[in-house]
Design goal:
The chain is globular, with a radius of gyration of 26 Å. Strand 1 (about 5) and strand 2 form a beta hairpin. It is α+β, with helices and mostly antiparallel strands and about 525 residues long. Helix content is about 50%, strand content about 10%. Helix 14 (about 315-345) runs parallel beside helix 19. The longest helix is centred in the middle third of the chain and has 32 residues, at about 315-345. One of its GO terms (cellular component) is endoplasmic reticulum membrane. It comes from Castor canadensis (American beaver).
Length: about 525
């Protein structure tokens, strides 16, 4: 047996067994890997010195706990943005840096980077995967690009126009429920509760052509969606439970798995049923016929979509995109519309001007339905919506992890592999961009005031290649619901001021309660 000299270790000559050589090789690889990581950490730390940072609590926890998930935390973010308007860096523990970007000129470099360069950072999103799969929210690279191209037709104006009737119908159901509650003396309503059900009702009709009547009676599917959203928000606040193997052992993890199964079962059943109704041949003619009859829904578009090579989406992909749309579409729109009503309740002069604008538009016809062409004829109402989305953005932040160095306009460099948080809330509250950012002022969105403002100053739907594909759908739904609401009701603030609560979307602690009074002239 050959001899191996280990005198340099003080071990003399020993038999060179394969196991010993393997152990040495493994130890050498581990040492090299550790040294490489240490070098990369110190190199990144050196390069990140150009980003200012607030004082750490200590070297071990860094800035953990600096910003709370509550009203106080949002005020802290506002203070940080005022102190560091060009962005800042925080340490999550001793070795994990986060760059926070909150200025239009800076966020542009990341948001406008290609989807292959600025990947969505899954540290914050990966626990949604069992529910949403590889839909547009979570997918990346070539798969994301392919799906984005295939889904774009689903949000074409010709597809969205017929949905306006659904927006009207779902809003009418909600208002009828409000009238019944008011007649019983319940004039103070939780906007999040009512509007969430309304948006889910709308989405089920637009995505699946399915009417569950969920605003009037319990729906198992809708209950599962709401439970999943609540569980996701709760898990997001418990970092240890971001690890799947731990979460699956908890009661919440078991509830999450059960609700996922129920939601997937519903979506799969709709897809299979729709497959049976599709013709074996002549799909293009079938699509054209459905479009003309105005019955094309989201599932139809997905089933009939083809990529450049003529390949269609798999059933698993269709389910992922449908589930993603249900998740993203109900919470964000409900948050946006709830806070819009709150801001108009706090500013009755703007509320009355919006109401008069809608009344004037519908003066010569039956004022019970908003049509597609009306949506472009409500400039002040649109300004009020946008200013509310600035002040209370439904999505507070998005994150990216770049696959290569990104050079910012001021010469600073975001190193490859470092996670960036694009603070939508911070950008919208940046005093260098928005004077008196805490004031609700719809005139900010007057066309004359927009001309010289950066397109990245207002990003409630993100921006760049990975912007929200459903933003026209969401804006249209909010316009219809708001216009009809102001025609029929006066909205007043509750006695208690709501406390903002940032979760996956911006909520209010204990709900967002407003008082509603029916208007005689607009009551149905």
């Amino acid at each position: 047996m050959p001899q191996l000299s280990l005198s340099w270790l003080g071990l003399g000559s020993v038999a060179a067994s394969p196991w010993l050589l393997l152990l040495l090789a493994g130890a050498s690889w581990l040492l090299a890997h550790v040294l490489t990581q240490i070098y990369a950490f110190y190199e990144n730390s050196r390069r990140l010195q150009c980003f200012p940072q607030p004082p750490k609590q200590n070297w071990l926890i860094g800035h953990l706990g600096l910003v709370k998930r509550e009203e106080k935390g949002l005020k802290q973010v506002t203070q940080l943005v005022g102190t560091y308007p060009q962005g800042f860096m925080v340490w999550m523990g001793p070795i994990f840096p986060l760059i926070n970007l909150c200025h239009p000129d800076i966020v542009r470099s990341v948001l406008n980077a290609s989807a292959a360069v600025a990947l969505k950072d899954l540290v914050f999103y990966n626990f949604l995967k069992p529910w949403l799969g590889d839909g547009l929210l979570l997918s990346s690279s070539d798969k994301w690009s392919r799906h984005r191209r295939m889904l774009t037709p689903a949000f074409h104006f010709n597809i969205l126009k017929p949905y306006v009737k659904i927006f009207n119908d779902s809003t009418n159901v909600m208002h009828a429920k409000w009238q019944r509650l008011i007649s019983k003396g319940n004039t103070c309503l939780n906007m999040f509760e009512h509007i969430s059900l309304m948006t889910l009702d709308t989405l089920q009709k637009c995505v699946f052509s399915f009417d569950s009547n969920c605003q009037e009676k319990p729906s198992e599917y809708i209950a599962a969606i709401l439970e999943l959203s609540a569980l996701v928000a709760k898990r997001n606040e418990q970092p240890l439970l971001h690890m799947d193997f731990l979460y699956q052992l908890t009661p919440d993890g078991q509830r999450f798995r059960k609700a996922c199964h129920l939601v997937h079962k519903f979506t799969d059943a709709v897809i299979q049923e729709r497959h049976r109704t599709l013709p074996d041949e002549g799909l293009d003619d079938f699509l054209l016929a459905k479009t003309k009859s105005k019955t094309l829904d989201f599932i139809d578009v997905l089933l009939l979509s083809k990529d450049e090579d003529g390949k269609m989406l798999s059933d698993e992909d269709i389910r992922a995109e449908a589930d993603t749309f249900m998740f993203e579409g109900h919470d964000t729109t409900a948050s946006g519309l709830s806070w819009i009503l709150y801001n108009l309740a706090k500013h009755p002069e703007h509320q009355e001007r919006c109401r008069q604008e809608v009344q004037e538009l519908l003066r010569d016809r039956d004022p019970t339905e908003i049509e597609w062409d009306d949506l472009a004829q409500l400039p002040f109402l649109t300004m009020c919506i946008k200013e509310s989305l600035r002040l209370h953005p439904p999505v507070m932040a998005i994150s990216r992890c770049c696959t290569q160095d990104v050079v910012l306009p001021d010469g600073r460099v975001i190193p490859k592999g470092v996670v960036c948080v694009i603070s939508i809330f911070g950008t919208h509250h940046n005093p260098e961009v928005w004077p008196n950012p805490e004031v609700y002022d719809p005139s900010r969105f007057d066309p004359e005031n927009i001309k010289d403002r950066s397109s990245m100053a207002f990003i409630p739907f993100s921006a760049g290649p990975r912007n929200c594909i459903g933003q026209t759908f969401a804006m249209s739904e909010m316009k219809v619901a708001l216009a009809l609401t102001l025609l029929r009701f006066r909205v007043l603030p509750d006695h208690a001021e709501p406390r903002r609560k940032p979760e996956l979307i911006l909520r209010a602690e204990g709900g967002l309660w407003l008082r509603v009074e029916p208007l005689r002239a607009g009551a149905r």
